[in-house]
Amino acid sequence: MKNIFKTIITTSAIGSLSLAAYFKIAENACRNQMVNPDYLIILGYGLKDDKVADILQMRIDAAADFLKNNPDTVAIPTGGKTHPGQTLSEAQAIKNGLMDKGIPEERIILEDQAKTTVENFINCKSIILKRCTNINTERIAFMTSDFHVFRSSVICKQAGLDAVGLPAPSPEKDYKKNVIREFLVFPIMYIEKMKGNK
Prior knowledge:
By secondary structure, the chain is of the alpha/beta class. The chain has one domain: Rossmann fold, CATH 3.40.50. About 55% of the residues lie in helices and about 10% in strands. The protein is built from six helices and four strands, in the order αβαβααβαβα. It has helices at about 1-30, 55-70, 90-100, 115-130, 150-160, 170-195; strands at about 40-45, 75-80, 140-145, 165-170. The protein has a four-stranded parallel beta sheet with strand order 2-1-3-4.
């Protein structure tokens, strides 16, 4: 009986967290874009045979448009080699895509070592710290897929970086699947964090 009660409580908690996460995902996907940030961090996505997936290409396209509309913003593509056999880093693939879209190389700083979203933000924070006297005065944004903004915002804060999440469109055919994944992953991430605080 005790185990059944514990299961009900756990399931209810996960359900509540998932529901809250769903609404936050939707809310963050529709946020107003920051105007003229000092830096735009662009989160990577795994390459298969060094090829850019549609989901990453849409991030690149959205980031290029944003950078054209905000000509003083410095881009920081982030992401290392995260898959076996990969010879091109995610960051380099993003940089190549931005340059193909007309963004000058001098506006782009690579972060090509990170293998997780936490490392993305920690490494980008280090890059920005080397370029400024007070990171708290810098205006920082990051771009990722619409469904991924909220969880990335949470991770960004955990990494000690204050940044505004900007949504890039994602492929419609995979949108429901990706939202469901976020729906399930976020409460697990939260529970793991709570365990770590004990």
